[in-house]
Amino acid sequence: MPDAQANPQYAAAPALAPTPGQTVGPFYHYALPFADGEHLVPPGTPGSVRLHGTVTDGNGAPVPDALLEIWQPDAEGRIVRVHGSLRRDLGVFTGFGRTQTWRDGGYSFITVEPGATSEGAAPFIAMTVFARGLLNRLFTRVYLPEPASALESDTLLSSLDPAERATLVASRESDGSLRFDVRLQGDGETVFLRYPRHEV
Predict the structure, then answer these.
(1) What is the arithmetic mean of pLDDT over 32-49?
(2) Mind telling me which residue stretches traverse the membrane in this protein (predicted)?
(3) Omega of the bond leading into 8 within 30 degrees of 0 (cis)
(4) Is residue 23 scored above 70 in pLDDT?
(5) Per-residue confidence at 1, pLDDT binned at 50, 70, 90?
(6) DSSP 9
(7) Nearest of 137, 46, 125, 36 to residue 79 by alpha carbon
(8) Rounded CA gap, 96 and 88, in Å?
(9) Structural domain contains residue 91
(10) pTM, 2 dp
(11) DSSP bridge pairs for 127
(12) Which domain holds residue 29?
């Protein structure tokens, strides 16, 4: 072992401040998407709806390399128990979807409007966001804009101020689609959730 006293270059270095980790990639556009991942039901399915929006960063600029995943109950509010969430068999609704954002930060899913999982509950879609600069995924919810009475009584929404609450409720477009924009930081930042045992 080198002698630190005889060789000053081997003396103990001063304590260094830890630095944050770095993300690798992202490689979402070719590594993670799968065929028809954005179609929870085939386009044109009776009762289907388009969920779409834009992912932006803290400066309001579009994020072209994010990956979004959604989980939801079916139209009757049943939590799906089908094995193999990546399957896209005709007539089999798994409640799971995955898609990447486009160059303009936009995304789109074709799905069904989720039903309430219990009487009077506010229907929502769970969403996870992966994006550049994130060391861990972000969790949020996409609430349907109706019924208003269910939104008013929802425990999570009731705990937020009006501006925060608005970031979790999709808007109904004139064509019947649902628009839900995700703001990662800054003014109008989407409310993100932390679950038990989830390390930030």
Answers:
(1) 89
(2) none
(3) no
(4) no
(5) very low
(6) G
(7) 125
(8) 10
(9) yes
(10) 0.83
(11) 70, 140
(12) 23-183
Which of 95, 144, 92, 101 is CA-nearest to residue 121? 144
- The CATH number given to whatever domain includes residue 119 is 2.60.130.10
Distance CA 176, CA 156 (A): 25
Residue 74 lies in a domain: yes
- Return the structure tokens found at 128: 């996870």
C-alpha span between 109 and 68 (Å, rounded): 10
Structure tokens at 125: 């879609």
Does the bond joining 162 to the residue before it have cis omega, within 30 degrees of 0?
no
Specify the number of domains making up the chain: 1
Q: Rounded to 5 degrees, what are φ and ψ at 23? A: -80, 150
Q: Which of 95, 36, 92 lies closest to 71 in space, CA to CA?
A: 95
Other C-beta atoms within 10 Å of 44: how many? 7
Structure tokens at 55: 């992912």
